[in-house]
From TrEMBL:
SMART domains: ML (SM00737). Monomer. Residues 32-154 form the MD-2-related lipid-recognition domain. This is Phosphatidylglycerol/phosphatidylinositol transfer protein. The keyword Signal applies.
């Protein structure tokens, strides 16, 4: 007997306790993609992600709204690998402490298993040089298991 089980953001169809197929939630975003979407190895499964405006605009506020499900607690020692490129030129590669970063958006570490939400607004500088920016974000546990993955591409005009 097969049955549907909704876990956070995924519709998972199981047969005799084996996962047969996963249907990931998709986003209608021109800028950002969840590259861990539908992969059960990722601890955070995103069900909703929106940025506004999409695409982002220089000198304007950028609002981020997201919802997802953590399949386990995430805490101390977890990290974010962030890379920013302008075209093919790597502008930044940095490893950030996840707990320090979540405190900046009014969350506390450890992040508990279960539903997570995020509402945050930042103001983008007017001085962003024109070009195609590519941002890769990989979030991992202290033992390097994947928590989340995002890829963003934004074009800023002169």
């Amino acid at each position: 007997v097969a049955y549907a089980n909704v876990i956070g953001r995924r519709d998972v169809f199981e047969f005799n306790e084996q996962i047969l197929i996963t249907f990931p939630t998709t986003f209608d975003s021109k800028t950002i993609q969840d590259c861990g979407s539908g992969n059960p190895e990722y601890i955070l499964q995103i069900s909703y992600l929106e940025i506004n405006p999409d695409p982002p605009q220089k000198g304007q506020q950028l609002s981020i709204s997201a919802k997802g499900y953590l399949s386990e607690e995430v805490g101390e020692g977890s990290y974010i690998d962030l890379t920013v490129k302008l075209g093919l030129i790597k502008l930044l590669h940095q490893r950030l402490d996840l707990c320090e970063q979540v405190e900046k958006v009014d969350k506390k570490c450890p992040l508990e298993e279960g539903e997570q939400t995020l509402e945050h607004t930042v103001t983008l500088p007017r001085e962003i040089p024109p070009g195609k920016y590519i941002v890769d974000v990989y979030v991992k546990t202290p033992d390097h298991r994947p928590i989340a993955c995002f890829k963003a591409t934004a074009f800023f005009r002169p």
